[in-house]
Amino acid sequence: MNGYSTMPCLPPTQPQIDPRPLAVRKIETFSRLGEGWSFGDGLRFEDSVINTAKSLVLHARKHGFLESDAFPGMQGDVLIRIYQGLHCLEFTVRNERCIDYVHEVEDAEIESEDDLTLDASTSKIQELRKDLCESFDFSKPYISTEGGVASQVLPSNRLEKMVVYRSWMKFAYDNWDIQSANTSPSFTRALQAV
Question: Which of 50, 93, 99, 159 has the fewest CB atoms within 10 Å, i.e. is most exposed?
């Protein structure tokens, strides 16, 4: 031959995108840190701490909190920060039955508790989600209206006839794994026709 490889020409492959949150991937790297990982200091991370920390991040993600971060602690603990707007939930995972919790708004501490279980910690995430959804600060809800006396809504640009509607909010997704919905005008018209 002419000195060139006879390897078949394969189409280029697309890079694989890891769907796991960055915080989960960071936490997994902590498990590879051994004793003395920080300039001779720093304890090894127990599997139970790693798994509990990952569970908290994934639970937050499932409930619509998409921004999170994780930091290794010198005592083998994992600090998780979950963000939504001005809110920050901070969990320090020491083991699956010992999690310290802090809720901050604009860097001011609102609430804190020590020695929570994983279940109690996930409840804190769910409580904030519920509070934020009800206050319209955080949404995957839809708003529906029906005739009533609570708020005034004009059905058209014509001001001669004003119709009064009562509004309420209802969660659009019971399953928070769904990340988006088609809300285009054509889709809405199609639904109204049904």
Answer: 159
Which sign, positive or negative, has the C-alpha torsion 182, 188, 192, 194?
Answer: negative
Per-residue burial over 160-172, b = 16 or more CB atoms within 10 Å of its CB, e = otherwise: eeeeebeeeeeee
d(CA 114, CA 189): 51
The tens digit of pLDDT for each residue in 62-91 reads 998 999 999 999 999 999 999 998 999 999
